[in-house]
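Appendix C reproduces, verbatim, an entry submitted by the partner laboratory led by Prof. M.T., so that reviewers can inspect both the input and the predicted structure.
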Amino acid sequence: MTSPSKTFCILPWVHLSTRPDGQMRVCCTANASSVGVTNDKIGGGNVGILKDEEGLPNNLNVSDFVSSWNSKYMKNVRKQMLAGEEPPSCRKCYEEERAGHNSKRMWETRYWKERVDLDKLLTETTVDGEVPPQLAYIDLRFGTKCQLACIMCSPHDSSGWIKEWQNIYPTIENKNVKEIWQWDNKGSINGSSYNWHKQNPVFWKQFYEQIPHMKQLYFAGGESLIIEEHYEILEECIRQDYAKDMEIRYNSNGVEWREDLFELWKHFKIVRFHYSVDSIHEMNEYIRYPSKWTRTEEVFHILDTQTSDNVEITVACAVNALNIYYIPDFIKWKLAQNFKKINMWPFGAGGINCHFVYWPAFLNVKILPNWFKDGCEKKYEEFIVWWTANWELGIPTWHKGKVTKEEWIEASYGINRLKGMISFMKSDDWSIRLPEMKDYLEKTDLYRGNDFYKTFPEMKDIFNE
């Protein structure tokens, strides 16, 4: 079925996303819709977070899962989409599309149209936007427990940041950075808590009632592989005999996991493991601090050779101001590894998968000065020529002869993705935020003993305008 409007996204009909503090949102990227060139909180700020009748954020400490599904906020999003309007929650996707980038709205809608009955969903949608609570796809984030303190993260999403935030935040001088990077009341809003999933029988009852409807479970940060409730859910899906029909997805740093994880995965229809790696060597260690590249490489090879055939492994690269220039180098490294399954065709056209960083805003790719953006574009153009000549490096043996060069060229996530990334980067000038980036990186470097200028030498002059 064709979409009912040009602004339609299927996610508000099949999906709900949680935050580590128990807040619920339209999807995992909806919050980014309020990020812009200044801190003016586009769309009223905090968009994408479900709100109750009083306008306070719904969260699973004080709200229940099922009634939030048909909250006034969710119903309004659905009605706006059906009317061809752009909900403020979804501004991020529409702007990416206008800049030539393949957005989450586009790929998720295409993906789920093949897995659910859209006609039935639309028929069941009431005039005021209510939909039966039979969720096919749930994004679960159980608190902030994590071993890393990635440069684009904070205590809101990683416990690994808490001690460093307490030491670095008081030294920040730029008022915009202080506003963006605040952690007031330890992040608690409207009774939210990073332990929302503990002692919460209403949530667990409603969640397990949804298992028969679920087609996909998505686990993300903190770090799900070290959170016990994640394993309890896998075991319960297996016990109820639904695992064989379910897909599970991860965004994970892959630093460590429970010994029986790979055995549990064998019970599921498909496991899509998006390995969160953002660059190579010391650049990845800087971005995903304090990870070590030797361990990152080791995990690449473990995932590539020791996981069962139902497990798909892709690279989930968070594209930001620090790494966009180096993405071609990352793809070349990946292609040279001769992996058996990691990002083999069609995933990323054999390269890597990419998504943009919006928070903190001063690490978004739009912040870079125009001369540096031009240099990125030139590097990508040269790389695309090389990759086009070596396109078969990402085609596994079982696809040889089944994929034409023309099909590869037209793939959504290969060279078209790279072109879209450059187009998006150049679509706006956020360079007014460069002093924010400079203050933030210099303060974190001082505390961590890192050196931005040494680690990313091609970027050493970006603050000199």
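Residues 11-133 form one domain. Additional entries are available on request from the coordinating office.
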